[in-house]
Structures are given as structure tokens and as C-alpha cells.
Design brief:
The chain is of the alpha/beta class and 476 residues long. 38% of the residues lie in helices and 15% in strands. The longest helix is centred in the last third of the chain and has 19 residues. Pfam families: B12-binding, Radical_SAM.
Amino acid sequence: MRILLIKPKARLRSVLGLQAFQLMEPLELGYLAAVAGPGHETHILDLRLAAWPWLTLDLTLRHFRPDLVGITGYSHEASIVKRIARTVRGHLPATRIVVGGHHATVDPRDYRIEAIDAIVRGEGCAPFGQIVNALAAGRELDGIPQVLRPDQSWRDDEERQWPQFPDPATLPLPRRDLWDTRHYRSVWTAEHLPRWHPLFPRVAMVRTSWGCKMKCAFCIVPHLCGGIHRPRPVASVVDEIASLEAEHVYFSDDENFICEDFGWKLADALAARGVRKRYFAWTRATTVNRSPELLRRWREIGLDAAFLGFEFPTDAELKRAAKGGSVAANERALDRLRSLGIAVHAAFMVQPEYGESEFARLRDYVRGLPPLQCSFTVCTPSPGTPDYLAMQSRLWVDNPHDLHDCMHPLTPTTLPLREFALTFAELAHTALEKVPMRVNRHLATPDQMVRVAFASRSYHKGLQAIYRDYPKALWD
């Protein structure tokens, strides 16, 4: 069979602005291509790389003529995923069309349209492999676990059940040979980098585990994983990292070091193998404060920076979000990481209810921190969480999925929407002054400086313009 796996291009300027800083590999499609096996001709179409995505899609369908199309997408891409499915159906009526990814998992009913043949929920490797095998054998797709059919065989009870995470040992090595790795780069931060080190190096994305033990109110992960963190076999992760051409590795785990024993074993195994890369990892303040020696070990083998969810500048807000930490704990973790030579990417959230004083409080708090990289989102619970269900009556847009990028408020703002957007964008602009590479005056080539200036402008403009994605009646 000919199999085409598609990653859509976002339509929101806020997302496109963020991608100017960071465009990561289509890792999920690499996994699916791996389970499809060598007996099929598989192509990956990353429409994020296309200047004219719909023309690129049309030409690909005409020339490749796939028998099976798989499409992934987040909630803010759901409308685009459905349009892609209808486009494929219009070109190739007999082609089977399967959708998966985050949105298919948390709100599969939204994909219950005629153009879609099957909806894969949860980790898609095992069910997609069964879909490929069934179609290759001329069988229908009924009875496959974690797969919903939009037709008359739809079952509401299956929709209400969260899919189970499989054994991480079953995760295959992704088919990186199906994309040009030179396209995938990320702005790289560190406390100190060699002179002329590129600001946008080529980056590979690696997943070492799935799940998280925490139960933050805004996050879908606890519901998907049942509060369990499950790492992959150490040897498999080491083999994957050792095989990478890229010298920079971005871990896509929900939390890299929450399982301390796994963290030590992986670090020691990478060192014993002689693998030397630069790493970016995700962690929590509670983990850093509990296991500083583990972070020290990772710094020794190449950890440059860590994502740390500060979320809010007050303990009261952290408590409401069930974050399980405190402002003081966040600051201790920041100091510990920096003392180890590990740069920090601090993530903050704002609430739609923020007024001028709350924005000013967050801005002043960030300005008072030592050098670090910051990002800002709007606190937006994921579909499928109790917090999302609780805010249904307050939603002020017809299709909240279209704006669910965690940068658009889905409920009314205290400030006029246009003012909210401009103030929110100014936070991100202020935070640029804190970036370690800027504070330390890291030397970079002219092309890298131009690229970072372009990315900064695109990101800032994208945030400033979020109000334009709403009906004009809501702007002021």
C-alpha cells in the first residue's frame, strides 16, 4: 500500500510566530511510519514547511495517490484536519482516511464526519499498525482497540473511556529517514555556550517516557496516564540518541526526571556509551529540589537547559491550579539549576481575568528574576479535564477548538480583548531582556542575528494580533 502521513500547518498567527523560534520533528508520524513496516511505501508530508500548504497537498495527492492517509493534529488544528480529510476524499474517494493525535484523543466526536473512516485515540502505534494490517489483508477496521468508527458502529461508551497507555517498551524507533532533518531547528539557550555556537541549531526530538504523577488542574496528562509515569527501556533510548545526526536533543517527555532511578540509569548509560550531546529537558521545581545531584549528573553529560513550570507568581494561584508547589520552591529550583550551569526556561500563565494590576505584578516579578528564558501562555484547560467542562457556560466563541492554542482566552477577559492581547504580547517582549544568551552577549554570526530578530518580531506580532481571531464585536 501507499501510505501518506500528514502534519497540518497551523492557521493561527500566534502558533506560526512560535514556530519561528522552534520547529520540531514530526516525531509522532515517524513512529507511525515505523509500525507500518517496510512492506509499504510510506511518505510523510509536513505541511508546516510549505509556503502554500493546500497547493502542496493537492500536488502530493495527484502524484502519490495514497491508499491510506493518516492525519494528526492538536485541538486548534481540528478544523484544518477536517478540511484535509475532505480534500483527500474529493481527490481520492476510495482512499481510507484515519485521524489521530491529541484532539482525536480528547474530543473524538468532533471528528465524526463522513470524510473520516477511523479515529485513533491515545498512543497510536499499536492501533495504526492494526489498521495497516487489516487494510492490507482486505479486512474492515471494526473491533480494533482505541479506534472509533464515525459511521453507524459508533459507540458512546467507548468515547467516554480514556485510552490506556501501552508498555513504553513497544515504542518503535521513529523513521527519521522520511524527513530532511535540516528543516527542524530550535532556538537554543544555555548559561554558557562556545563562542559562535549557533542560536538555531538542528535539533532532534526524543521521548524517553510518558505520563506524569502530578495532577495539575489545567493539564490533561493525569487523565490520559492515570497518574502513572512509565519510562522506556534505557537501552532503547540510548540506541536512539546514539544514532542521531543532530548534536542537540530536545526531550518531549511530560517530566524527564520524576523517576529518579531511571534518570540515573539513563545518564550513566549514555556516558558509558560515549554519547555526547546537548540536551533540553522538562522538569518540575519539586523534582529539582528533591534530586539536585541527578541534575548535576545530567549537566555533566550535556544538559544545557531545563523547562520549569513556574506558572504563577503567587502561592494562591498555584494552589488553585493544584500545582503542588510554591513560589519559594520555584525560586530555589531556579537558583539550584543556575548554580549547576543549567539555564532555565520558565513558563508562566496568565488568567483571562487578569487586569492591569495582575499583569503588572507578573511583569515586575519576571523583571526581578535572574537571567532566564521565559514563555507565557493563557491558562486554558484542555478539553477532557474537569476545569474545561466547568467553563463551558462561560465560553465566548462558537468553536473554542479553533482558538485552543493556549494563547487565546476562551472566556471573557477583564480587560478589553485588544488591550489584553497587547499587554500579553508586551510580557513576552519584556522577557527577551532576560535571556541568558543576550545578557551574556553571546557572539553569533550575522545570519543567526537576523534570524533571531525575525523570530522575535514574528512571535511578538503574532501575540499582539490574537484579538483579530475573534469576532470584531469582542475586540473592544
